[in-house]
């Protein structure tokens, strides 16, 4: 029997789903590999698997975490993750690393990261794939989150580097968005893009220890002020978004940070915002899948692909108007 035999595939999917629901980390890792695969038969399996698992109705707290390289993300996630597992919680860490999709080199993929956490049986760490196709990063991450939830993790941390559009994408699949910053040298706010600040529910100023402590506390006060001016989400409690000091290295400030995350999550749950946000996110996901599917279908047809090429060039050289060129491709598809 071949793997593409439908009943055999069904049995395999069923066994994998059962193992994931039982919390088997190896099965979870295999399932994530499956959703990352570009092969059509793997895709079909992945979809069947996700569909089966969706019914389990398990939900984790999804925390998006962003910060520029060097700010202390790995150190923080390790310390914070261990803090959570120490309380009996199961923690999954997923990385979104746009650099690896572009260059094949990874900012986040270093194997020696989070060594202690990776040995913790209550933790699961998945580095970002080095060969992810650009458009596939969002899908892969969403699906990996869904798999971790089905595997019974209480918290899913989705880590991203502070570049480009990855924050927006991660914020769009998280319940909470946390921005990790370093103490500012002078009185300048560290050139954090306004849009990224606006997504943050919690700003954690890391490295609040030793010589950096007073600078960190000043930075916290600066950001607290900036956050108050920036925006107020009508639905959130008065004092959010917030800025707090932490030291990932000294493992200080982790409990208060976790308290604040839980307080905000509980509030949103109680007020019904949580469910509404999740519903919107699920709908967005669905619509993105439809769009991506249509594009993939267009690109599969060699004649249309050639047309896309030619018209793309014509548009780039100013010989055709974009809307007109797009209409022509769509007409050919019809
Ligand atoms: P990432 O690139 O954001 O993942 O940052 P890392 O976790 O690799 O940390 C970058 C550097 O900052 C390392 O040398 C860490 O030891 C250091 N670092 C991280 N957290 C802290 C902290 O809380 N205090 C101090 N003083 N250094 C830290």
Provide structural commentary.
With 334 residues, this protein is an alpha/beta fold. It has 14 helices and 7 strands. The protein is 56% helix and 11% strand. A 7-stranded parallel beta sheet has the order 3-2-4-1-5-6-7, sandwiched between helices. α1 crosses α3 (40-54). The chain is globular, with a radius of gyration of 22 Å. The two termini are 39 Å apart. The mean pLDDT is 87. Guanosine-5'-diphosphate binds next to α4.
CATH class of the largest domain: Alpha Beta
Low-confidence stretches: none
Structural class: alpha/beta
* Series of H and E elements: HHHEHEHHEHEHEHEHEHHHH
Spatial gap, N to C terminus:
39 Å
Annotated CATH topology of the largest domain: Rossmann fold
Number of helices: 14
Beta-strand residue fraction: 5-15%
In terms of topology, how is this protein built?
Blueprint: H1 6-21, H2 25-36, H3 40-54, E1 61-67, H4 73-86, E2 91-96, H5 98-103, H6 115-119, E3 123-126, H7 136-150, E4 155-161, H8 166-171, E5 176-181, H9 194-199, E6 202-205, H10 213-230, E7 242-245, H11 254-271, H12 273-300, H13 302-316, H14 322-333
Parallel strand pairs: 1-4, 1-5, 2-3, 2-4, 5-6, 6-7
Key phrases:
Single alpha-helices involved in coiled-coils or other helix-helix interfaces; 11% strand; 14 helices; 3 domains; alpha/beta; 334 residues; binds guanosine-5'-diphosphate; Rossmann fold; seven-stranded parallel sheet; single chain
């Amino acid at each position: 029997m071949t793997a593409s035999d439908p009943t055999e595939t069904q049995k395999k999917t069923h066994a994998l789903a059962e193992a994931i629901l039982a919390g088997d980390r190896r099965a979870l890792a295999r399932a994530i590999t499956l959703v990352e695969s570009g092969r059509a038969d793997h895709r079909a399996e992945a979809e069947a698997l996700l569909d089966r698992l969706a019914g389990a109705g398990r939900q984790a707290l999804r925390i998006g975490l962003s910060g520029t390289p060097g700010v202390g993300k790995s150190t923080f996630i390790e310390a914070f993750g261990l803090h959570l597992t120490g309380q009996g919680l199961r923690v999954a860490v997923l990385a979104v690393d746009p650099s690896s999709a572009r260059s094949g080199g990874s900012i986040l993929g270093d194997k020696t990261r989070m060594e202690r956490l990776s040995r913790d049986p209550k933790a699961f760490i998945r580095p970002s794939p080095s060969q992810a196709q650009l458009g596939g990063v969002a899908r892969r991450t969403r699906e990996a989150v869904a798999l971790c939830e089905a595997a019974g993790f209480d918290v899913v941390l989705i880590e991203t580097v502070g570049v480009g559009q990855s924050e927006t994408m991660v914020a769009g699949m998280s319940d909470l968005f946390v921005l990790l910053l370093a103490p500012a040298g002078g009185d300048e706010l560290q050139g954090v893009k306004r849009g990224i600040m606006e997504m943050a529910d919690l700003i954690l100023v890391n490295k609040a220890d030793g010589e950096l402590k007073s600078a960190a506390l000043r930075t916290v006060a600066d950001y607290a002020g900036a956050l108050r001016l920036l925006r107020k989400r009508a639905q959130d409690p008065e004092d959010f978004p917030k800025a707090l000091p932490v030291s990932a290295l000294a493992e200080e400030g982790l409990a208060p940070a976790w308290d604040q995350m839980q307080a905000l999550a509980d509030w949103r749950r109680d007020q019904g915002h949580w469910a509404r946000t999740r519903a919107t996110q699920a709908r967005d996901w669905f619509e993105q899948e439809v769009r991506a599917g249509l594009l993939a279908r267009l690109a599969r047809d060699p004649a249309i692909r050639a047309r896309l090429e030619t018209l793309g060039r014509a548009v780039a050289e100013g010989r055709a108007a974009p809307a007109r060129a797009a209409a022509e491709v769509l007409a050919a598809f019809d």
